[in-house]
UniProtKB/TrEMBL annotation:
Superkingdom of source: Eukaryota
Endonuclease/exonuclease/phosphatase domain location: 41-184
A Pfam family the protein falls into: Exo_endo_phos
InterPro entries: Endo/exonu/phosph_ase_sf, Endo/exonuclease/phosphatase
GO molecular function, one term: endonuclease activity
Key words, A-Z: Endonuclease, Exonuclease, Hydrolase, Nuclease
The protein's name: Endonuclease/exonuclease/phosphatase family protein
Length: 223
């Protein structure tokens, strides 16, 4: 386990199999708990200026998750989510590629997903006290063989959270960025969209005097 002071922006971005938190402009305490395996990565964060003992507006937990793609091992993923839910009483959000869908409407093309897979994943989510974070944009996050008769699309990537996390971030949403660098579209977890939209936008002003600075070319080149 390691504990670091890092800078995170309001959005937390996750793309495909390997989810990442991309730097932004908000300082938060970050405690990383690597799992030692590829299935999940756990972070504990605290809001700036909030005491850690105050779990209502202080610390919260973020888990990056990758579910087993094999149907025979899907139950292992579901049970693992249940165990993760018991690890902590903090507000919790889990995000990533679950390799599962919650309804038949989350798949398009080819054969329908078996009901036992959909029902099993849904029951695991209920048992863990989680609900879907609303996603905006294109409804599917994974694709295969687009432009062919065998094309298929599914919503395999998502964010789920427990009730106390939704109380902490009531306006949170997920955005599908639809940037096909792989067969998974990146998704963006935006915790405080309402707060950020109310912030005044700073106007950029270029000063002609900067052209006289000897190091200007190097600064621009390395931006």
């Amino acid at each position: 386990m390691s504990r670091k002071k890092v800078t995170l922006g309001s959005p937390v971005a996750v793309g495909g199999l390997d989810g990442n938190c991309f730097p932004g402009n908000r300082r938060e305490d970050l405690e990383t708990r690597p799992a030692g395996r590829n299935e999940y990565y756990k972070l504990e964060l605290s809001r700036p200026g909030k005491p850690e003992r105050n779990t209502q507006r202080g610390m919260w937990r973020l888990t990056g998750f990758y579910g087993y793609p094999e149907g025979a091992r899907r139950r292992d993923s579901w049970n693992f989510i249940r165990r993760l839910a018991q690890d902590s009483h903090l507000p919790w959000c889990i995000i990533g590629d679950f390799n599962d869908i919650l309804s038949v409407n989350e798949k398009k093309g080819r054969n329908e997903r078996p009901n036992w897979l959909i029902d099993g994943f849904r029951k695991a989510i209920i048992d863990a006290g989680l609900s879907d974070v609303h996603m905006e944009g294109y409804p599917f996050t994974w694709f295969k063989s687009l432009g062919t008769p065998r094309a298929v699309e599914e919503k395999l990537d998502r964010a789920l959270a427990n009730g106390s996390w939704f109380q902490m971030f009531p306006y949170a949403k997920v955005e599908n960025l639809v940037a096909p660098a792989s067969d998974h579209y990146p998704i963006l977890l935006d915790r405080d969209p309402a707060v950020r939209s109310c912030r005044p936008q700073r106007k950029f002003k270029f000063e002609n005097a900067w052209c006289l600075e000897s190091g200007l070319d190097d600064v621009v080149y390395h931006c």
